[in-house]
Known about the structure:
0% strand; mainly alpha
Amino acid sequence: MIETGLLEYLIALIGGFLAGIINSLAGNGSAITLTILTEVLDVPGNIANGTNRVGVLSAAIGAYLGFRKNDKIDYSLSKLILTCIMIGGLCGVVVAAFYTTDKAFMGVFKYIMLLMLPIILLRPKRWLHNEKKVSKLPFIFRVILYLLLGFYAGFIQMGMGIFFLVIAVLLDGFDLFSANVIKVIAVLLLTTVVLMIFQYNGLVNWKLGGIIALGQLTGAFLAINLAAKSANANEWTYRLLVFIIVMANLKLFGVFG
């Protein structure tokens, strides 16, 4: 494991804090934490991928408990989806943890970050609706889509929430709220298993991961209160996310640094 000092922990805390705010108000906070880990703290790509899941799991637990407290959890809606995502996710994490070198992971990460920029600029959440529709997708297409989504989540996770909502709401006919509930259950179940596999392969820095998770929880709490008081909170968070992804792409592609 890498040696870390007080400055590194502080950077991890700040990165987690920003990710918590962005996850709560805009989404895709893993773009922040993975960039902090790989480009600022020089954590090897595979360890960054595993370490990032600690914060992902803590956020999923918090969201799940919130939904459960309000009796919003319904597994009957999501058995096929959860099964496909778990199968795909297990394949994805095995590839990431056992068959992907640090150099190969960073190559994939670089181009996914490049893809994230137009996706964020298009703001797909604007297209999503709250009306439940009947899915017109053939069964086999549903299975393939959720298997691929699961593989992606198991491999890198970043942006999975956005991709899930686009598939579940725009293609599969779920209303936005139900899709968010299923997404939280899927992330919770899959990340629990994924984290164990990364840990088995020695690819988790628990100190950095725990500090990032603490920052995420703090940032999410602040964001919820900020959103309640400021009508512009979401917009400024979105601009921060775009700025960070642009800067990360410039760094990853060697424009500076």
